[in-house]
Amino acid sequence: MEKKNIQCNVTILSYDELDEKDAELVEKAKQATSGSYSPYSQFSVGAAIRLADGTIVTGGNQENASYPCGLCAERTALFYANAQYPTLPVNAIAIAAKNVNGFLSTPITPCGACRQALLETELRYKQMIKVLLYGTEKIYCVDSIAELLPLQFTLS
Question: Quick check: is 5 in a domain?
Fold first, then answer.
C-alpha cells in the first residue's frame, strides 16, 4: 500500500496587500454579485475573469426552480470569455459571495464542476489561472486552479 499526501498552497492576504490589478478584479467580482439571479438560495456569487489582454469578463450565479438548470458564477463568466474571446488565455479569476447579511467574511471556493471547467481552460491555453477568493476578513490566493483540484480528471 502506498499513501500520498496532497497539499494545496494558499496565500492568505488582506485586501490592502493586493496589487492594483488584483484589487480591480476582486472589486469586479464583488460588483458581479449584483448580476446574480438567486431568488431561492439568497446566495449571490460573482466572478470576474481577467484575460491576457487585460479584458475583464464577469458573471453571476443563475438559479432556476429546476435546480440542475442553474449555473455557477465562475462558469457563467468562463464560458462567456471562452466563447467571445477564444484566442485569449485566462490569466486570473476572482470570486466573491454574499448572502442577505452582506459579503462573507471567509472566502468560498469553486465547486467541483467549476474547478474542472477552469482546469480545462488552463490546459487549453497551457497557462496557469490565478485564483483570488474574496472574504471581508481575508483573501485566499492560489497560483493555479490545479492547486484546488489535485486529483484532476484529464484525458491524458
Answer: no
> N- to C-terminal Cα distance for the chain?
25
What does the radius of gyration of the chain's CA atoms come to, in whole angstroms?
A: 15
d(CA 149, CA 112): 8
Q: Which domain holds residue 117?
A: 11-148
Q: Give the integer Cα–Cα distance in Å for 107 and 87.
A: 30
Q: How far apart are CA 93 and CA 76, in angstroms?
A: 12
For the segment 110-132, what is each residue's pLDDT rounded down to a tens digit? Answer: 999 999 999 999 999 999 999 99
CATH label of the domain that carries residue 16: 3.40.140.10
Residue 55 included in any domain: yes
Does any domain span residue 3? no
Domain count of the fold of the chain? 1
Say whether pTM exceeds 0.90.
yes
6 in any annotated domain: no
Q: Do 119 and 149 meet the contact criterion of CB atoms below 8 Å apart?
A: yes
Distances (CA, A) of 22 to 18, 37, 49, 54, 135: 6, 25, 10, 11, 14
Length of the chain as a residue count: 156
> How many alpha carbons lie under 13 Å from residue 124 in its C-beta half-sphere?
15
Active-site annotation, residues: 74
